[in-house]
Amino acid sequence: MWAATKLVAGREIAVKIRDRTFLISTVLFLLIAAASTVLPAIFANSGSTVAVVGSGDTASTLDRAGMEVVSATDVAAAERLIRDGDVDAAVVPDDGGGVRVLAMDRTPDSVVRALSSAPPVQLLDPDTVDPMLAFLVPVSFSMVFFFLSISFGVQIAQSVTEEKQTRIVEILVTAVPVRALLAGKVLGNGALAFGQVMLIALVAVVSMQAVGGDTALLGQLGPAIAWFIPFFVVGFVLLASLWAVTGALVSRQEDISGASGPIQLLIMVPFFLVIFFNSNPTAMTALSYVPFSAPTAMPLRLFFGDAATWEPVLALLILLAAAALCIALAARLYEGSLLRTNGKTSLRAAWQERETRVS
Question: Which of 263, 270, 252, 269 is nearest to 326 (CA)?
């Protein structure tokens, strides 16, 4: 069984890495990951309004960096300009003879980089998470899981249906156990999806460091990314087994879109729930224990610091149990429908076919 599974998985990987569509999609994902970290840093220096107290050299430096400079009479006046929203930050004299930067709720990286040496930064109203990050991080986690689950899932279903439609599956099952076909397809595509996730994470981190990204942000994202990987792997295996059954239930490629409606809902509904309710602690707590939304909801709660240390362990165990149950059910349905090539097979017919074959 294990030897046959490895054989099928190796074939799936070999076919995919030579497929032009797969290679183009991988490059596209990597370009998006790089652009999402590089472009914000490139445009960060533009559009900032900075109040300056005292030194004309500081004003000239900021002006050359493309920022609008406003003169302030003293530190108190600069603070009022920040609190009133008239400026984004202020550069004021420091007690040590240098300068320091004032800001409202987050460090103005563009101002800090524009100055010749990094001054101490004092936040008047510190916030634990940048508002922009509070939007981008949930979207990023959700989009990665959503698109990879959909793209690889459709490819798995198409591969299974193609083998049925061309009658190749009748030859395969004489040499390879049916369950090995299912396990090999899930493991092979799971390995490819995992590889894409690792490449996306690597490109994002390297790009962030290359443009002088915030090291504190990398430390904050670290635990969330570390937990996202096992949640992604288990969640992907769960969904991949269901996609394989979807492909086995139909006999033509044209029927996949209609048969895949339920599983697409299982992916899309949690995706939108996490996007829309990521700022609702109660909703996110519930979503982090639902198997189809846990791969994105729980890492996000860890990023925002809303989850206790034991919660991701419990959520992962629940997800593992759900995946094991889905795989067992999918294996039975897959075995009962794979050799039925006379049109679309219902779930009941696939279940009864498996019982008849066993008896």
Answer: 263
CA dihedral 318, 321, 324, 327 (to 10 degrees): -50
Distances (CA, A) of 203 to 24, 219, 239, 246: 16, 16, 26, 33
- How far is residue 255's CA from residue 19's CA, in Å, rounded to a whole number? 23
pTM of the model: 0.71
Q: Work out the widest C-alpha separation in the chain, in whole angstroms.
A: 91
Question: What would the pLDDT profile of 266-309 be if each residue is shown by its tens digit?
Answer: 899 998 998 888 888 899 999 999 999 999 999 888 888 888 88
CB atoms within 10 A of CB 145: 26
Beta strand 68-71 pairing with 99-103: unpaired
What is the C-alpha to C-alpha distance for residues 135 and 138, in angstroms, rounded to an integer?
Answer: 6
CB-CB contact of 208 with 37 (8 Å): yes
Instruction: Report the distance separating Cα 210 and Cα 296, nearest Å.
Output: 27
- Separation between Cα atoms, residue 90 and residue 102, nearest integer Å: 5
Cβ–Cβ under 8 Å, residues 157 and 246: yes
Locus of tokens 């049925």 = 164
- Residue range 248-276, pLDDT digits in tens: 888 888 888 888 888 999 899 998 998 88
Q: Where are the beta strands (DSSP E) in the chain?
A: 49-52, 68-71, 89-93, 99-103, 121-123
Cβ neighbours of residue 246 closer than 8 Å, sequence gap 6 or more: 157, 256, 259, 260, 263
